[in-house]
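Ticket closed. Logging final result for HK97 gp10 family phage protein.
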Amino acid sequence: MSKKLKKNATMSDVKTIVKTNTAELTEGMQNEAQVLLTGHWEGKKFVKPTGTTKRSITMHISNNGLAGHTGPKTEYAPYLIRGTRYMVKRDFFLPPLRKQKQKFKSDLERLMQ
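Final structure:
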């Protein structure tokens, strides 16, 4: 796959695909977090969401533009994603990732043609 990429596409095209897909994944995770994280009950009092987890989802491009990283930076995000024995999971991470993974593959395959 990498040999064919080198023949048909320039590295700037690949970097553009990585950057746009990382940005779309970040946006998808933020949207999903807004939909799923709607607050919680503490005793008999409802606590509204503050949006900290949504704001902590940021993207970072590394490896000279060939790698993109995104995800929540709050320390309690894994508990929200996976849940605990007392709290149901609210996975705002994997559904957008699966969706974007397919789009990323199709973008790279389109570039190779």
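Helices lie at 2-8, 11-36, 52-56, 77-82, 94-112. No further action required.
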